[in-house]
Design a protein that fits this description.
single chain, 273 residues, alpha+beta, Enolase-like, domain 1, 3 domains, 14 strands, binds flavin-adenine dinucleotide
Length: 273
């Protein structure tokens, strides 16, 4: 079966080509798409890609930064503008994967992947979507809900996110069985703004505790007004797996993921590496 590759200078044209062809798949870095094709996925008949320069940019606008969907994990980790996202970017695969894996592609990752997406979720990121001839901005949480229901038919231009006020306010921990960077047993990203030593407006997101990266609202609620010490975080640890149904896969079982979640969360909240 032949495979057509269509390259467009403008992202809008790529979006229209994607919408018009059910066999078309957008190509980011290709760590998933090319593997699917090489493994014989005949549902993909056309690859759509774009050379739009905006896809490759990281730029700051005040305390907001915009990251193009085609930016790779290696580029995020190397850029001063996105230094606060270096830990989740560096946790993705090995160097060869990070040189290809894009920010846009990570938004479509399923468990046990999606480390960078969890970081963006904890930071309340906005996704810039091109759909047919139009453009819109969607909160990442909403974008992930929509994505779970349908195959990707939209093109992501990029994401934007507010830089945390302090280095310590954003934290990321990942537990893997393969060092230094395998797929996660669990990964946790948290944004922990504080006022007068107490957490205010916490956002916590998990990887590998459901089909896709997810916010953990029970933990967020328990952290409201808490101090980040042993007694202050007790409620959050008690709520660590509330309502969660993690998968059993080759990396870890449902039981194991639920057992280790409070331990990884505790290390993150107490600032232990
Ligand atoms: C060996 C290995 C190790 C890995 N380790 C990790 C890991 O530790 N953590 C982790 O999170 N992931 C990991 N991954 C998964 C994957 O590499 C990343 O999630 C990566 O970010 C996917 O991006 P990509 O550009 O390669 O996606 P692609 O393969 O290009 O695309 C993946 C999906 O996203 C869609 N897509 C891509 N870009 C866009 C866009 N701009 N607009 C619309 N749709 C788009 C594609 O159509 C496709 O459906 C690993 C993969 C491999 C092969």
């Amino acid at each position: 079966m032949s495979l057509q590759v269509r390259t467009f200078p403008q992202l809008g044209e790529a979006a229209q080509a994607l919408a018009a062809d059910r066999g078309a798949r957008y190509l980011g870095g290709g760590t998933f798409v090319m593997r699917a094709i090489n493994e014989g996925d005949v549902s993909i008949t056309t690859i759509v890609r774009s050379t739009d320069p905006a896809l490759q940019q990281i730029r700051s606008d005040g305390d907001r930064i915009h990251i193009g969907a085609g930016v790779t994990m290696s580029q995020v980790a190397a850029s001063r503008d996105s230094d606060f996202l270096a830990a989740p970017a560096q946790s993705v695969g090995g160097p060869a994967v990070r040189n290809m894996a894009t920010v846009g592609g990570n938004l479509f990752a399923r468990s046990p992947y999606g480390d960078f997406t969890a970081a963006l979720l904890a930071l309340d990121a906005t996704v810039h979507v091109v759909e047919g001839a139009g453009r819109r901005e969607t909160p990442l949480e909403e974008f992930l809900r929509q994505g779970a229901q349908s195959e990707p038919r939209r093109v992501v231009a990029g994401v934007s996110v507010r830089r945390p006020h302090s280095r310590d306010a954003f934290r990321f921990r990942k537990l893997t069985r393969v060092k230094p960077a395998g797929a996660s047993v669990i990964a946790i990203a948290a944004h922990l703004p504080n006022a007068g030593g107490r957490v205010q407006g916490a956002r916590v997101a998990y990887v590998s505790m459901g089909p896709r990266p997810t916010r953990v609202q029970a933990v967020e609620r328990a952290l409201e007004g808490a101090t980040l010490d042993e007694s202050g975080i007790a409620g959050a640890l008690a709520a660590a797996t509330e309502g969660l149904d993690p998968p059993t896969d080759a990396i870890a079982s449902y039981w194991y993921r639920r057992e280790v979640a409070p331990a990884v969360l505790k290390r993150l909240l107490l600032g232990i590496q």
